[in-house]
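Reopening closed ticket. The problem is back. First fold of the pair:
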Amino acid sequence: MKAFILSAMAVVSLASCATGPSAQTGSVIGGLGGAAVGGIIGNQSGRGLEGAAIGAGLGALAGNAIGNSRDQRRYNNGYGYGYNNRPYYGRPY
């Protein structure tokens, strides 16, 4: 239980560094998934807490990269965030 709480705290702190909405979601999901997998693998070698912490960090970084890629693709396709996105004639139908 202590490992899960520490992993969740690490995920939340890393998710605050993400920029776009998909990057934030990817950081959280990747961090939680990485903590779970890292905890299981680390438990097999007797170091569950270290495995969960490493897995949470790596999972959050990977999830952030995937989410940031999704945000960039969405922004470049004309579905930008904000007021100055493409005009109507530049959008695909």
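Second fold of the pair, where the issue appears:
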Amino acid sequence: MVRRARPAEVAETLGLPAGEPNCLVRRRRLLASGIPVRLNASWFPLDIAGGTVLEEEAPVIVGGVKTALAELGYPQVTAREHITPSRLPTDAEALALEISPERTVMEIMHVGRTAEGKAVEVTITVAPAHYLVAEYEFPLA
């Protein structure tokens, strides 16, 4: 895990000053049958995540980050996702996903909030667009 300053949009969402090393980021490259299918970067305020299981190098946290945050006193009760359905990858993303720079990717920005409305997690997922399908179900009445 790395302690660092976050991109301005993530800093704003978490309510932290941009340009300062005040957050923790967990980066993951997920494979399916040896093929890279997704890049995840999860950002947490350092005052919440520093020195906790979220900072450990283990690739998997038992119960996931939402369970870890809940055990730290920050249970998430709402989430919002902003989906950019098609954009070109950065050079680093194309390299990590082993795709050509002309192949489009989908980006999902997930924000988890506590009952008080405090954002405690921002996860940005990037995947080749041809690997993802978005499907929703919701009540109409």
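Update: turned out to be a display glitch only; the data is intact. Confidence is low (pLDDT under 50) at residues 1-5. The chain has one domain: 2-121. Please close again.
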